[in-house]
Amino acid sequence: MSETATPPTKKATRAGNYFISNYPPFSFWSSDQGEEVRAAYDRDPIPGTPLGLYHHIPFCRRRCHFCYFRVYTDKNGQEIRDYLDHTITELERLAAKPLVAGRKPHFIYFGGGTPSYLSGRQLTDLTDRMKAILSWDDAEEVAFECEPGTLTAGKLAAIKEIGVTRLSLGIENFDDRILEINGRAHRSKEVWKAFERARAEGFDQINIDLIAGMLEETEENWQKNIEQVLKLAPDSITIYQMEIPYNTTIYKDMKESGALVAPVAGWETKRRWVREAFAELEANGYTISSGYTAVKNPERTKFIYRDSLWGGADLVGLGVASFSHVQGVHYQNLTEIDDYVAAIDTEKMPVKRAFRTNEEERMIREFILQMKLGHVKADYFRDKFQISILDRFARPLEELTEEGLLEVIDDAIVLSRDGLLCVDNLLHDFFLEHHKTDRIV
Ligand code: SF4
After folding, report:
1. What is the C-alpha separation between 300 and 234, in angstroms, rounded?
2. Would you give the DSSP letter of residue 8?
3. Do the Cβ atoms of 55 and 109 come closer than 8 Å?
4. By C-alpha distance, which of 4, 18, 37 is closest to 441?
5. Measured from the CB, is residue 81 less than 6 Å from ligand 1?
6. For 358-433, CATH number?
7. What is the pLDDT of residues 59-117, one digit of tens each?
8. Residue with CA nearest ligand 1 atom 7
9. Ligand 1 contact via 58 beta carbon (within 6 Å)
């Protein structure tokens, strides 16, 4: 950083990861635990454990300035087909292992990148081949992420035809200027068209994603975003608070200019924006179902991928940079497409880093992930891990109760709205001492 750098204020948005998606943190995973992954696949499944599939499509029309995923914007049709072929080979091999053989996935998730970047024909071909290897007959949910500008009527029909139950539209913002400044490929006109077409196709569930605190977001525009969401009336809305991880274009620019604070709203403002959005959504009949999500009909609108994963399901990830969790072993695939393809070609498992959890780490993982729902039942942990979470975590629970961030009610931990809005920041308190890393807020 240069000598002229401005010191960050307490709640300013600094670079780093705020969102906690797994435990133990990725920095503890290592490249020498590949053997643990092979051993996990060689064991029989634990009875009653659901199985899920995640397929990573790493292609996008354009790289968003806030993006921290492995994505490619320059691959041609042949390279894409070649990549998809390799993911099928990966699935064939894993499906033959004792852990997976004979099981049917309970949920399937297409993430990226932009799964809707694929053509209708590529999608149909890919999913036909996936189904021939592992039947989707028992799948309760097939979720699919989309970029609105890629959704033609024909493609939406193909997405519906392959069995997608939840379509997730990455809208992020409704203002064209803000979309452009943040490097998004789509524009608001495409959002409305895509949404209408998706409704006409009759998907069980349409989710939209928004980000609070994009570059140049304003109070006035945020209110307009909420109004537009209410007009669309999706089945669920997911709102993320903008974070600036180190591998984003925004961080690169910060580094070049010597800035310590990202040019986006601070955490207090972002949280107030989400609070206001949640309040408006509740006033219009929605229910808040996690720190990020509002749903129109909680009885009907489920998040099976999320809830299964947060309850310890096996997840087999396919493709470059994908994440998996099998029999308590976390792993991530190689993060460069050429390395991934080369590993598959030479019949190696394309594992970049892995971590075998012990029982205590699995308990903490499920606990912190379920905290994101705003409601954690103690009896679940008594039944599954023979532990009282109220005793085990008595100290942090007491401190967070004093701060008004949660309460213990009838054998359950219930987060207040304040607690829910900063839930990722609270979770560090429950980590094992040697896993505690720097918080960025
Ligand atoms: S669409 Fe999503 S995955 Fe693609 S560049 Fe933008 S944020 Fe990244």
Report:
1. 13
2. P
3. yes
4. 18
5. no
6. 1.10.10.920
7. 999 999 999 888 999 999 999 999 999 999 999 999 999 999 999 999 999 999 999 99
8. 67
9. no
Q: Whose CA is nearest to atom 8 of ligand 1?
A: 67
What CA–CA distance (Å, rounded) separates 39 from 357? 13
Tokens 């033609």 locate to 152
In 3D space, the residue among 311, 326, 307, 306 whose CA is nearest the CA of residue 385 turns out to be 311
The residue to mutate among 68, 71, 209, having the most atoms of ligand 1 within 8 angstroms of its beta carbon, is 71
Give the CATH number of domain 26-308; options: 3.90.550.10, 3.40.50.300, 3.80.30.20, 3.40.50.880.
Answer: 3.80.30.20
Q: Give the span between the Cα atoms of 241 and 267, in whole angstroms.
A: 8
**DSSP code, position 291:** S
Residues of the chain with CATH 1.10.10.920: 358-433
Residue ranges of the chain that CATH labels 3.80.30.20: 26-308
Q: Is the whole model's pTM more than 0.90, yes or no?
A: yes
Instruction: For residue 393, name the pLDDT band (cuts at 50, 70, 90).
Output: very high
Per residue in 215-227, pLDDT (tens digit) is 899 999 999 999 9
Integer Rg of the chain from CA:
21
Q: What is the DSSP letter of 12?
A: S
- CA–centroid distance, residue 360 to ligand 1 (Å): 35
